[in-house]
Amino acid sequence: NRTITDYYPGDRWIDVIAFDGFNWNYYREYRSPGEIYGAGYQWARQHNKPYASAEWGSAVIRGDTRGRARWIRTTGRWFSSHRAKFATYWNNEKFALTDRPSLRAARSLM
């Protein structure tokens, strides 16, 4: 039952609004970047602040071979088109870039 307003100290104190967003493997699909990151982007716009992604990533959906790589590229383009100040891929054990297509996709964004 928490909201961002429970933690937001006010526009005067904040320079950039950054949110986390992930595509977990239990979704069974690669959700669109707008679905995952759109609400945070809109919140930043409402406060007239630059948007960023503090952590983003996706698990590999079971049986997938190249879909996550496409999702990474699509998400990178979404961040770029929405003028994100930065976007940090969270390369932990659940979202690790261990397959070549995903690793190439992530490198292409850098």
Question: What would your notes on this structure say?
Answer:
- The chain is α/β, with parallel strands linked by helices and 110 residues long.
- The protein has three helices and three strands; from the N terminus they run E-H-E-H-E-H.
- The chain has a three-stranded parallel sheet with strand order 1-2-3.
- Helix 1 links the parallel strand 1 and strand 2 (51-58).
- The chain is elongated and about 45 Å long.
- 27% of the residues are buried.
What is the fold's blueprint, element by element?
Layout: E1 17-23, H1 33-46, E2 51-58, H2 67-81, E3 87-89, H3 100-109
Parallel strand pairs: 1-2, 2-3
Helix pairs in contact: 2-3
N→C terminal distance: 37 Å
How much of the sequence lies in strands comes to 15-25%
Global shape: elongated
Structural class: alpha/beta
Q: Averaging pLDDT over every residue, what do you get? A: 93
- Order of strands across the main sheet: 1-2-3
Encode the helix/strand succession as letters: EHEHEH
The strand count comes to 3
Percent in helix: 25-40%
Uncertain stretches? none
* Oligomeric state of this protein: single chain
Measured on Cα atoms, how large is the radius of gyration?
Answer: 15 Å
Number of helices: 3
The biggest sheet, with number of strands, parallel, antiparallel or mixed sense and barrel status, is: 3 strands, parallel
